[in-house]
Amino acid sequence: MLRIGTKTAEFLVVCGRGERTLDERQFNILRGIFSACASDYWEFISPATFVAFFLRSEKGNARAQDLFTTLTELRKMMPEYENVHAARSEGALKANFTWLGKLRASPQGSAFDAAVRGAAGRSA
Question: In terms of CB atoms within 10 Å, which end of the chain has fewer, N or C?
Fold first, then answer.
């Protein structure tokens, strides 16, 4: 399917969210994790929340699972990250694609909302 303009597509969404504002070290570690996760789009959306979007495919599913596992393990292995919760969701989101099929901005829809709500204080 050619993706140009605003389309609805199936996504996996992974969110990492701190219970409070992240300190500089936590922010830099999480930014590194999210920027290296090979998502189709990711962003920092509040003083303590990162979200990554993966188009549904075999590779996208595996990359989303890898990110979720990384966030879960980080929380278990490092006490200073015990306040960082991870959540994931999946579903159809409205997304705006460039001529090259890349996402212009954060896709929107209920799967995005569910991931952010799920990470709001829920353990990974």
Answer: N
